[in-house]
Amino acid sequence: MKRIYVNEQWCLGCHLCEYECAFANSNLKEMYHLKGKSIFPKIHVEDAADGIHYAVNCRHCQEAICVKSCIAGALSRDENGMVVIDQNKCVGCYTCVLVCPFGAVMPAEGGKVAQKCELCTKNACGTPNCVAHCPNNAIVFEDRG
């Protein structure tokens, strides 16, 4: 399965991937509509004290503890092996947020349900928007076996 991988040594820490993710999942026609608003991307950049930056997103783990821990059955694996969340089933307990070892599951806008990266499969981008718009190609979408 293709996944998003981050080359930390190339990440500039520009946070553009966060805006591209929020835009891709917003149903807006133009990105400037996000200006001045709080965004809720499904990827986020961590800025380490040593100057290293890295994007954090769902890794669609083989043994996904978030899926095993979801009390409502909102997290599951689709036919392609991707970990997906059914926000209609999510009860907002945030157990998945607490157990994710990578910090890739987070509260959605409004805080009533959880969200995570689903590789832009629900917004018809094809290639995940964060990958397509990373100015330094620090984020890649590939199958590493």
Task: Walk me through this protein's architecture.
With 145 residues, the chain is of the alpha+beta class. The protein has two domains: 1-57 and 119-145, 2-Layer Sandwich (Alpha-Beta Plaits); 60-116, Alpha-Beta Plaits (2-Layer Sandwich). It is built from four helices and eight strands; from the N terminus they run E-H-E-E-H-E-E-H-E-E-H-E. It has helices spanning 16-24, 65-69, 95-99, 129-132, and strands at residues 3-6, 44-47, 53-56, 75-77, 83-85, 106-107, 114-115, 139-142. Strands 1-8 form a two-stranded antiparallel sheet. A two-stranded antiparallel sheet has the order 2-3. Strand 4 (75-77) and strand 5 form a beta hairpin. The chain starts with a strand and ends with a strand. The mean pLDDT is 92.
List keywords for this structure.
globular; alpha+beta; 16% helix; Alpha-Beta Plaits; 145 residues; two-stranded antiparallel ribbon
Q: What is the molecular shape?
A: globular
How far is the N terminus from the C terminus? 7 Å
Number of domains: 2
Structural class: alpha+beta
Number of strands: 8
Mean pLDDT: 92
CATH class of the largest domain: Alpha Beta
Strand content: 15-25%
Which topology of the largest domain does CATH recognise? Alpha-Beta Plaits
Helical amount: 10-25%
Q: Which residues sit in consecutive blocks of at least 5 with pLDDT less than 50?
A: none
Q: What is the CATH architecture annotation of the largest domain?
A: 2-Layer Sandwich
Major pleated sheet: 2 strands, antiparallel
Number of helices: 4
N-to-C SSE string, H for helix and E for strand: EHEEHEEHEEHE
Numbering strands along the chain, what is their spatial order in the largest sheet? 1-8
Rounded Rg: 15 Å
